[in-house]
Amino acid sequence: MRFALASQALVGAVAVSALTLPRSLEKRLRLIDLAQFGSFPTISPEQAHSEAEPVTTNFSDGPQFTGGASSTNSKAPVTAAEETVTTAAAADGTCDRNNPGIRFEWRNYSADDKKAFVNGIKCLMDAPSSGNFQGAQSRYEDLVSVHQQLTPDIHQRAVFLPWHRYYVWVFESLMREECGFDRAFPWWDETLDSGKFAESDIFTDEHFGPLPGKTSDGQGTCIDTGTFGGLTLHIGPGSGFTSHCLARAVDESLTGTVSASFVTDCNSRTSYDDMRGCQELGPHAYGHNGVGAVMAEVQASPGDPVFFLHHLFVDHSFRIWQNADAARTTSINGCADANNPCTPITMDYVLHSNGLRPNTTIANVMDTLGGFLCYRYDY
């Protein structure tokens, strides 16, 4: 299956929100023009459903994990070597497949771990940039810069899911190695908050700050409270480097599209690249656009730290698709570039982060229990 995207750009028009702020409240807030952020291209849930294949399995990560509190099940990633990790090194038995790290859904994550996770991100934001990434003024913005610079090569390509899995690993490595984060990692099951993202305790001052709606005249709101309140971003919008606030502008009509049925319709595809295209333009895109503002801006969306919880959700969808057939951890198909005809992607395709962390290959990240990675999800 191929999606017709000739008329869609990576940065498009922002949809009108169904949720707005009263004018009396707007006067007390710092607002920001949403036009500069754009949005992710999408397909409709109806299209995804009409092209769904018969589902012959229950997509899950095995029996629901009942091993105890999240803080007792942490496992650091394998220490990275200085050079590209080879497939042979990834298969050297460094991951105990019966005892991997567990990624806990946010509701199953302890209050103490939630606080530690947020503080770990704040640690990266408070740490100085390495100086190797254009525009970055903190260690966290080194991460954001990588995504901004690589956007043309990592979106609407077959590499989308493996690269973002690797990117989350890069983020996790920085958290553990440079900020001392020693807990299990969380993920966010967005389908449980479909149509009501703003009600999740993720979006409270204790965690990631509020999720306000668009104003009556279609503007976003700068986040001024909570751990990330008053944050100034220096990467983006787009390919630029214009200082701007961390802003959000939720549209619950879009978050309502991030449903279990949409995920399942995409995961019904037996071809990797068909599944990837559906997930990328479907639940993934609607999650970004639903949170809005910075998150809806393709290149610099990691500037909003909730980006990583969102991509942990996307990776969960990818892993449960793989669980349905063991061959899905050892093969891939699709285009590595935009050439016509394109270059077919292979398992030897090198994943990189512009030197932020060591390179690896698609082969090394396709199996999350393969050694380079060592994790599963709690359900």
How does this model look, in words?
By secondary structure, the protein is α/β, with parallel strands linked by helices. The protein contains eleven helices and twelve strands. It has helices at 23-26, 45-50, 87-90, 111-126, 139-154, 160-179, 252-255, 260-267, 272-291, 306-323, 362-366, and strands at residues 20-21, 31-33, 101-105, 186-187, 214-215, 219-222, 232-233, 244-245, 247-248, 350-351, 360-361, 375-377. A hairpin with an 8-residue loop joins strand 10 and strand 11 (360-361). The longest helix is centred in the middle third of the chain and has 20 residues, at 160-179. Mean pLDDT is 89; it is low at 1-19 and 72-91.
Main traits of this protein?
379 residues, alpha/beta, three-stranded antiparallel β-sheet, three-stranded parallel β-sheet, 12 strands, 32% helix, globular, disordered N terminus
